[in-house]
Fold this sequence. Notes:
The chain is of the alpha+beta class.
Amino acid sequence: MSKLETILDFSHGSWGEDRIFAGEKLCFVIDGATPISGAPFGAYHTGAEWMAEELSRYLAEHDGEIPALCKQFTEQTQCLLQEEFRDVHSMPCAVLSAVRWEKAHIQGYVLGDCAVYVLHNSGEIACYADRRTATFYKKTLQAKANAAKAGMDVEEAVRDQRKKNKAAMNQPGGYWTVSYIGDFEREFCTFRIPAEEIQGILLCSDGFDRIFERNLFTPEDILRGKISLNAALSKLRAAEKVSSADVKVHDDASAILLRP
């Protein structure tokens, strides 16, 4: 597979919490999740920015199974920074999607609300995603809508719901992220496909996936080259300015498009 196009767009402009890597045998998209406090973390704007940057560097520099590498990363960094992680609400975490070339096969990994779309030679498009996060995101959207309807403090309602959601992170019946609690390495959604059966692969964060949720374009449009990543994102940013039912008006958006 060859790297056809990549995009990394930060909603804050100069900094953000997404990262991408497109190498010869490994490609991934990482989306860091801001702790409830959102406080600066060392030289970084947030703990999520630190998490995305350092996890990205670690995965790019080490060879092996993605779940095991993610676990090694948390084990190695926790001993250095454990004083910062006093409770689950201050804990940075990240989700990701990745593909790795293994001889004649593509091995894929997904944890959290990043996704992988695969265009097969048959014309079928398969979506590999971890939908457990969506349940809790919908709860936050509902809390936002209820607060707005009742004339209450919307930001406070969203913050309170996020705290409730965070308590379910890396817990049975909850959602899973790369973080410092729970056996998340066992919760990755994985897939393995013969490389000769694949025409294209799209990896993306949830900020880019909004394009499909809003029905602006389809994964097929991008995988078949009908629209570029940049053009699709420009359409999304314009639509977000008009109206946004999302928790964040804008989110970091990242994607990697691959073809043989």
